[in-house]
Design a protein that fits this description.
30% helix; 11% strand; 3 strands; alpha+beta; 5 helices; globular
Length: 196
């Protein structure tokens, strides 16, 4: 028996990911990497994960979250991104569904941040969960609520002039061709296309 030193073990895996870059409304600039924005992004990551799990009807622990520092070509400085990802190796398709629930996602995130205990920053009734304990010093529900204003929710919702099919209109993140194929695969007996 011998102890091997300097040996590193690891593995590679892939999963489904949704990455979000937010901008400050006042300056229209991406959220710069600083302590204040990092706290905001961690808070939004946790609340958006919860919101997406509600939209999809899955447990929130089936989705992971992260905040990363990124360099974007043409943008000066480092910016922050929020990532939601599927915990299951290979992906379950949960995180990639986020664009389909865009306006609902942010509305539910804001509801989640309205803590029933009305805590100051974060508590176990809102943001503190088993997997958020390590980042609890970054969590601030009031920063999240200050960002997710009525104005913001209005901006991420489908505008009235874009609701071509009335109030039942929804945002389509893909091309029309991909949306038709996707809908046809999910509901082959319901899809009817009228060309005129």
């Amino acid at each position: 028996n011998q102890v091997n030193q300097g040996l590193h073990l690891g593995y590679e895996d892939s999963t489904d990911v949704f990455e979000l870059y937010l901008k400050q409304r006042s300056t229209n600039e991406y959220l710069a990497a600083n302590e204040t924005n990092e706290s905001l992004c961690w808070t939004l990551a946790v609340s958006l994960r919860h919101a997406l799990s509600q939209c999809l009807g899955v447990n929130s622990d089936e989705l992971g979250f992260a905040v990363s520092r990124k360099l974007i070509p043409g943008i000066t400085g480092t910016v922050l991104s929020i990532t939601l990802y599927d915990i299951n190796g290979g992906g379950s398709g949960f995180a990639t569904q986020a664009p389909y629930y865009f306006d609902e996602l942010f509305s539910r995130a804001r509801e989640f941040l309205q803590c029933p205990s009305e805590c100051e920053d974060a508590c176990d009734a809102c943001l503190i969960q088993f997997d958020t304990q390590r980042i609890s010093h970054h969590l601030d529900r009031n920063a999240g609520l200050n960002f997710l204003t009525d104005e913001f929710l209005h901006l991420v919702s489908l505008q009235q002039e874009d609701q071509l099919l009335g109030t039942a209109s929804v945002f389509c993140p893909n091309s029309l061709e991909l949306e038709i194929k996707s809908f046809g695969n999910r509901y082959p007996n319901l899809l009817k296309i009228f060309l005129g």
